[in-house]
Target: Ribosomal protein uS12 methylthiotransferase RimO
Amino acid sequence: MSAHTPKVGFVSLGCPKALVDSERILTQLRSDGYEVVPSYDQADLVVVNTCGFIDAAKAESLEAIGEALNENGKVIVTGCMGAQADEITNIHPQVLAVTGPQQYEQVVGAVHQYLPKPERKHEPFIDLVPPQGIKLTPRHYAYLKISEGCNHRCTFCIIPSLRGDLVSRPVGDVMDEAERLVSAGVQELLVVSQDTSAYGVDTKYRTGFWQGRPLKTRMKELCDAMGDLGAWVRLHYVYPYPHVDDVIPLMAEGKILPYLDIPFQHAHPDVLRAMKRPAASEKTLDRINAWRDICPDITLRSTFIVGFPGETDAQFEYLLDFLDEAQLDRVGCFTYSPVEGATANAIHPAVPEEVKEERLARFMEKQVAISARKLQQKIGRELEVLIDEVGLDGSIGRTQADAPEIDGQIYLLDDVNVKPGDRVRVRVTDADEHDLWGERIKP
Ligand code: SF4
Model:
């Protein structure tokens, strides 16, 4: 690339959905002829993709903007926090432009304005951008976003006010992207959205086309088609609606991974109602048991909030009993954090901080024991493992039960004859409360 190529630095904060936005912006910038550089001093301008989900994320975003301003000086802000531009410009009036989440054209337009794109004499897309686009994840797995926004109005969440109502991507576009990624070497597709189970609701499950075949814009049909591509397909952010039952047989058949990431957030019906959670009235335990009857190997991951405003001792105890009964594999738990603008903040009484912390500790103590027991049961089993890293004295991978970054890993000590992206058979030899150890079964 020539010395005159305009150079952009990029800071990507937040969740996998924001990461997908970053990848899309970077793909566009590269196809416009910009070079993406890894340090502030090499960059002519820096884009910061922010997260505004909770106050701690906002503080981190503001800090990142401040750092980019100090180190570089020319900064454009985008992403969730961009929906509340005042909060940024009040603290950092020097930023050149602020655009909101999914405003790809606007952020790229702002870059064009402050750092004009280079004159081009040839087809830029072919020269500069791999067909699968720019990926910020390692080459062997990729997040695939199937929709934007959300039709729910959970009372602790401000995402719909930041990202708007649900807009599903056309099923043919999603499948084209999935196919490009797999052709480029991706071994694992991580399907993300705000509510994956709602895919297609906004289009009334319109029939789209992929490779000349009709295909409905609906979770089951999408999973069925993606399952034919040969990569692992992992579903995130699914709610326990009755129609989720339809994808469990695909898991039992091995078409998609037997893994569901379902953010239950609570178990007590009154708290779920106060949270206005999707599928709050569903009989969750019955549903989980029915899924396990069809697909005994299914891994269930979830997240919960303790100390939601108004949560009583009895409701918290009910949640602990639910954990005992549900026997979930992987669980994250947070204390309630009053995000500015969330309607739940008006629910009384707020739970005192020390009670929240105590509930969190009791919750985690119970769940850690459950997760550890479930991992112990894997010792001796033979599992498929996707290799993530290879070092000098061994390699690290993940089983089908483990999503990158949020779940556990499996360590293959002394085994370096593999590459990231390899899928290998492993016998599990040991486990702790989070990770596994194993030995590769040589073919
Ligand atoms: S489902 Fe609820 S928590 Fe998730 S994005 Fe929608 S409103 Fe927020």
